[in-house]
Amino acid sequence: PDVGGTDRFRRPLSPPATENPMPSFDISSEVDMVALRNAVDSANRKITNRYDFKGTGAHVEHNDKVLTLHGDNDFQIDQMTQILLPEMTGKKIDVRCLEHGDLQKVGGNKVKQELRVRVGVEQDLAKRIVKLIKDGKLKAQASIQGDVVRVTGKKRDDLQDCIALVKKDVTDYPLQYGNFRD
User: Fold this and answer.
1) Is 60 exposed, middle or buried (0-12, 13-18, 19+ CB in 10 A)?
2) What strand order describes the sheet that includes 176-181?
3) Is pLDDT of 103 > 70?
4) What is the pLDDT of residue 18?
């Protein structure tokens, strides 16, 4: 006997869906931080094992979203970059996420360079993507939601046209297209 609706096999009926939401997807830019850490560690191992780096303080430092290359001269920094970037590519990290800072002199004749890891779609780029979709006269709307751009449209084909348009126009920044909803 069911007294007060405590029967554990009965589920309350959910209200019927009033309308189907429009298909959407998100344009984002993410970096796998674990893979980045592994790439930095691997690059540091290669740097310490290379003959031309023996006896120098050359190394790559990883702090949250900043990689710092430490070396004796700008040539060493360049060589370290040529070791680090293929390691990142090997770990499936798009190197376009790096923003190269200026070479800085540090006490004595040492130099360093900071590489900032860009995560999330920056505000300027997000505005550019929204304008691009609007100017493309596609049947889709784009809105900025934090560091993600959400694109909604009536048909899935419209969304695929948006992806093609953005991929063609934005080549200087690594973007991912995900969180598809029908």
Assistant:
1) buried
2) 140-145, 148-153, 24-28, 176-181
3) yes
4) 45
Helix (H) or strand (E) holding 157: helix 156-169
DSSP 3-state of 89: helix
Any residues with CB less than 8 A from the CB of 95 and at least 6 apart, and which?
A: 85, 88, 89
* pTM for this model (two decimals): 0.77
Instruction: Quickly list DSSP for 11-57.
Output: -PPPPPPSSPPPPEEEEE----HHHHHHHHHHHHHHHHH-GGGTTS-
Mean pLDDT of the chain: 85
Evaluate whether 93 touches 130 at the Cβ level (below 8 Å): no
- Per-residue pLDDT band for 158 (boundaries 50, 70, 90) equals confident
CB of 90 within 8 A of CB of 40?
A: no
Distances (CA, A) of 41 to 144, 148, 160: 35, 30, 38
Give residue 140's pLDDT: 87
- Indicate whether 17 pLDDT > 80: no
Sheet with 98-106, edge to edge strand ranges:
59-63, 66-71, 110-117, 98-106
**Bigger pLDDT: 1 vs 140:** 140
**Neighbouring residues of 50: CB distance < 8 A, sequence distance ≥ 6:** 83
- Whole-angstrom Cα distance, residue 157 to residue 168? 17
